[in-house]
Amino acid sequence: MNPVRAAILLCGLLLATSARAAAQDLPLVRMLLQRVVVDEMSAHDSEATAWYNDKSKDKTKYFQTNLFGREIDQRVASWTEESKSWISIERPAETLTLELTQFEVRDGRAYFSLTGKAKLGFRVWGRIPRLAKGNASGTVWSKFALEGSTSMTGGGLADSQITRLDGKLRDLQFNNDLASPLEKLFVSALNDHVKNKNKKLRRSVEKAIDRVKF
């Protein structure tokens, strides 16, 4: 065999062996996985890098009447509530904690679960036609859970999928007084970030994990 070709084949074999060994170093993979999620979330530490969400919801009010012994719902009003919200992590180095609670490898794919908590800063704007319009800011603590999987390739992680990301808010504090209808609207908007409309956040975490290289 040509000496040059033999050297190329040997280098390729050594690199492949090294990559496979790194992929099997599960403590290293666990550490890298947890670190990259922490780094991705910590990057959203100001309003300029905050997670943004807008929401509109149609509402209808009915009045129930009795006509010839039959109850009938009659619509008396309809409107659309609107909100915009920005959420970021307050001082992530101090308030963000994350723990890898599950890590299992099956057929070259790692399945993981993480739990964590963080103090969030937020700004919200909302409008309820003919009733109220305003904005507010404040802080809130969030406990969250994240689940997903990623493929352990020869050179790193790829094809990551976050299948669950939800959380709960507590200790909500507004920096200004609000009318009751607006407060309810703002709380609903904030809950969307951790429960219903977090597709952008899931995708950003997936991309971050895919950047892990061994």
Short description:
This protein has helices spanning 3-24, 26-42, 92-95, 180-194, 199-210; strands at 51-67, 70-89, 97-106, 109-128, 132-152, 157-174.
Please supply descriptive tags for the structure shown above.
six-stranded antiparallel beta sheet; 5 helices; alpha+beta; elongated; 214 residues; 6 strands
Structure description:
This protein is an alpha+beta fold. It has 5 helices and 6 strands. It has helices at residues 3-24, 26-42, 92-95, 180-194, 199-210, and strands spanning 51-67, 70-89, 97-106, 109-128, 132-152, 157-174. The protein is elongated. Mean pLDDT is 80; it is low at 2-24.
The oligomeric state is single chain
Assign a percent range to the helix content. Answer: 25-40%
Poorly predicted ranges: 2-24
Order of helices and strands: HHEEHEEEEHH
What composes the largest sheet?
6 strands, antiparallel
Structural class: alpha+beta
Distance between the termini: 32 Å
- Determine Rg (CA atoms, Å): 25 Å
Strand content: over 45%
In DSSP terms, counting alpha (H) and pi (I) runs of 4 or more, how many helices?
5
> What is the overall shape?
elongated
Total DSSP E strands:
6
Q: Averaging pLDDT over every residue, what do you get? A: 80
List the helices and strands and how they pair.
Layout: H1 3-24, H2 26-42, E1 51-67, E2 70-89, H3 92-95, E3 97-106, E4 109-128, E5 132-152, E6 157-174, H4 180-194, H5 199-210
Antiparallel strand pairs: 1-2, 2-4, 3-4, 4-5, 5-6
Helix pairs in contact: 2-5
